[in-house]
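Key result, reporting period 2: structure in, sequence out.
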């Protein structure tokens, strides 16, 4: 059987179900392709789960998907992901390949940035529109910004993920991209929220004007940004907790 196991944003988020699934498997692969992973987190996760994990890049998870699924026909194989495994299309594709080949698979959910960030900020989940990613080549790809503008027209919030390609993008770099396209396509937004290392012990969140966030000292990525839409008074009060200087 193929197990797709989410372990949350940090090792402490791992569930009993996830630990049991990992221990059951003969081969355990840790996805280091779709999610940035730090070495100290890997060691901590291996200690909690009681299993050594192979680092799995794109070559294994996408190019070698058919072989991986065939292996899961003969023995239990786990693909472990920080966050939630089915938040990434790479893993959804694995489930489709498994079904086409008649191989059983099981989904073990984990805490995702997609749900953690709205809850942590005190924003209403159902008021979020498209989630967007700022790509590395953002100067030539305005589509992410057009989607932010589309959300704002509908008074909806936007969770802005930052590319983790050749090097994890920072909040400052993400804001540079937003301001670049705001000058060309129109702004329509005022304050934003920077979220650094969501769920980690050194998590840092700041709500304010882009210029304030760009002057803020941030811990290492992963980083994300939220562009608020129309705020309910309760949401506005909740975000007030993260104004720079209050925490």
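The corresponding designed sequence is given below.
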């Amino acid at each position: 059987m193929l197990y797709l196991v989410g372990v949350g944003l940090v090792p402490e988020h791992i569930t009993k179900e996830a630990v049991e699934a990992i221990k059951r498997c003969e081969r355990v692969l840790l996805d280091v392709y779709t999610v940035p992973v730090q070495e100290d987190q890997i060691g901590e996760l291996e200690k909690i789960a009681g299993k050594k994990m192979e680092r799995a890049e794109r070559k294994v998870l996408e190019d070698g998907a058919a072989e991986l699924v065939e292996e899961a026909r003969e023995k239990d194989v786990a693909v472990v992901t920080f966050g939630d495994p089915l938040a990434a299309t790479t893993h959804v594709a694995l489930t489709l390949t498994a079904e086409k080949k008649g191989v059983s698979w099981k989904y073990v959910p984990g805490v995702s940035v997609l749900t953690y960030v709205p809850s942590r900020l005190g924003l209403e989940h159902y008021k979020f529109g498209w989630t967007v990613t700022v790509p590395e080549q953002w100067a030539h790809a305005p589509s992410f910004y057009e989607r932010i503008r589309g959300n704002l027209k509908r008074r909806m919030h936007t969770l802005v993920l930052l590319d983790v390609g050749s090097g994890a993008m920072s909040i400052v770099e993400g804001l540079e991209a937003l301001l670049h396209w705001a000058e060309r396509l129109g702004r329509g937004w005022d304050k934003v929220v920077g979220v650094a290392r969501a769920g980690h012990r050194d998590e840092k969140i700041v709500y304010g004007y882009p210029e304030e966030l760009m002057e803020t000292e941030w811990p290492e990525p992963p980083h994300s940004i939220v562009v608020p839409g129309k705020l309910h008074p309760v949401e506005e009060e909740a975000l007030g907790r993260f104004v720079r200087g209050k925490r």
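The CA atoms of residues 62 and 93 lie 8 Å apart. The chain has two domains: 2-108, 113-242. This case is discussed further under Risks and Mitigation.
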